[in-house]
Design goal:
This protein has one domain. Helix content is 65%, strand content 2%. The protein is built from 14 helices and two strands. A two-stranded antiparallel sheet has the order 1-2. The longest helix has 29 residues, at 22-50.
Length: 358
Amino acid sequence: MLYHLLLPLADHASIFNVVKYITFRAGIGMLTALGICFLISPWFIRRLQKNQIGQQIRELGPESHFSKAGTPTMGGGLILVAILLPALLWMDLTNPFFWYVFVITLGYGILGFLDDYWKITKKNTKGVSGKVKLFWQFLLALGVTGCMYYRGDIEPQLLFPFFKNFIIPLDWFFVPFGAFVIVGASNAVNLTDGLDGLAIGPVMTTAACIAILAYVTGNTNFASYLNYPFILGSGELTIFSACLVGAGLGFLWYNTYPAQVFMGDVGSLSLGGALGTLAVCTHHEIILAIVGGIFVIEALSVITQVASFKTTGKRVFKMAPIHHHFELKGWPEPKVIVRFWIISIILALIGLLSLKLR
């Protein structure tokens, strides 16, 4: 909104020319998101405590987590505000990519809110059933990817990083494939959100990496020089990614060990959905799997554990997702968190190498 208000003023005062630059709006968007978190979080946490909106701990979880019962949850609602409000202020609202990522982030946030609300009101850890969640996740994702395909906003193809001309045309299969990426990313982040600050760290490194890649694909000069396919309008997603990083930093201040607030499903489902949509909009689905490798590992650990137990009756890990496995092996929670962050940073650097190694 501010972008559209300030842009016409550039014809009268040169100082307003800065709003034309994506880099400026990305920076100011990140600071706006960070400021919203710092300003509202103390009040928001007090309201959660007053209304007894506390975390329900599953009985099969590690014993060390039982002391966390009652910690304010649904802090992801604050993250949503801190992402979406700056995005509305500083992004070009006529850009279709903005609305694709906005719809998924908000829609998955509402779904996560309902899940958290059921868990709190019913005093259990089940919430909305998995089948119902998957149905609505796929419905929203298919709607968004279907719009992308039928409007022709993006070429329906799959790019492989580190290879210049390795491109697979997807045609109509782009719609279910893109939906799978979005839903998969959403649930993978949800599975990762099990320790204080564990999920938000890799979310930020992944978003920061996608911000750089989105800027490249949306800039004709950089895209041509680096042999990336140019996607008209995708550069605006740099701003959304930057807002996500800013909101994540602000939330981490209160979510770091020992956490004062948890993000809940309202946060993890929406953040994962946002990352998946950003990747689909910029043709970086495979890069997302590399940069967001922590989320992939967490999801695969659960799939492996369930498959092994159902087929052989034996468990591969002491507990899944895999961060609980390391806890039960004796790693202190902060050690697990920081080491996972380090791995996430390394994976982000590997993903960025694809800019040159093509």
